[in-house]
Design a protein that fits this description.
The protein is an alpha+beta fold and 173 residues long. The chain has helices at 29-41, 82-93, 122-135, and strands at residues 19-21, 52-60, 65-69, 101-110, 140-144, 150-153. It has three helices and six strands; from the N terminus they run βαββαβαββ. 32% of the residues are buried.
C-alpha cells in the first residue's frame, strides 16, 4: 500500500508561554534576589575577547544562591557560558542528589555600558532543560528583553519546545 503524499506541507504554529513584566520592580522578593544576583555576577566574568560580561544565578529550594559567569578563552570555543558554569558548579560542589533549583536568571552587559539582553544560547538551553528534567520539577527563568522588560518563563521547557532528551537516544542492552 502506498503512503499518502501531498503536494504541500502542513503549516503548524508554535506558541511560547512567558510573562512580560514592565519593570524589575514587579518581581517578587525571591525573583528580585536572583535577578540582582545574576547582574552582580557579571562583575566576575572573564570576557577579554568579546568584552560582553554575562552572569547567571540559581535560586535553590533552601534559599541559597549559586552564581556563574562566562569564561572566555583565546582558543575558541574553549570558553563556557555563565548558565553552564552556574549549573556545572552546583553539580560539582554539592553532594548527590543535587539540591532542587527553584529559579534562575541571566544578565549581560558590555564592558562599557548598561545591562542589555543576554539570552541563553542553544547549548545552554539544552543543559538548563536537562537539569529541569532531572529534578522533575519546573525551574522558572528571568531574562531581560530588548525593550527593557523582564521575561519570566514558568518552565525551561517553554524556552526550548523542540528539545533533545534521553528518550531520543537508542535503548542500550
Amino acid at each position: 500500500m502506498a503512503a499518502l503524499v501531498t503536494d504541500s506541507p502542513t503549516l503548524r504554529q508554535l506558541t511560547l508561554r512567558y510573562h512580560e513584566l514592565a519593570t524589575p520592580d514587579l518581581l517578587n522578593p525571591a525573583e528580585r534576589q536572583v535577578w540582582d544576583a545574576a547582574r552582580a555576577a557579571t562583575a566576575h566574568s572573564y570576557a577579554p575577547y568579546s568584552h560582553f560580561h554575562v552572569g547567571a544565578a540559581l535560586l535553590l529550594a533552601d534559599g541559597s544562591l549559586v552564581q556563574g559567569t562566562n569564561q572566555e578563552n583565546a582558543a575558541y570555543p574553549s570558553g563556557l557560558c555563565a548558565e553552564r558554569t552556574a549549573l556545572f558548579g552546583l553539580a560539582g560542589s554539592r553532594p548527590s542528589p543535587p539540591p532542587r533549583i527553584v529559579g534562575m536568571s541571566v544578565a549581560g552587559r558590555p564592558a562599557e555600558g548598561d545591562f542589555s539582553p543576554a539570552l541563553p544560547c542553544g547549548a545552554c538551553r539544552q543543559v538548563m532543560l536537562e537539569y529541569e528534567m532531572r529534578q522533575g520539577e519546573p525551574i522558572w527563568l528571568l531574562l531581560p528583553s530588548l525593550s527593557g522588560t523582564v521575561l519570566r518563563f514558568d518552565s525551561l521547557a517553554d524556552l526550548l519546545p523542540f528539545h533533545f532528551s534521553a528518550t531520543d537516544l537508542p535503548a542500550r542492552a
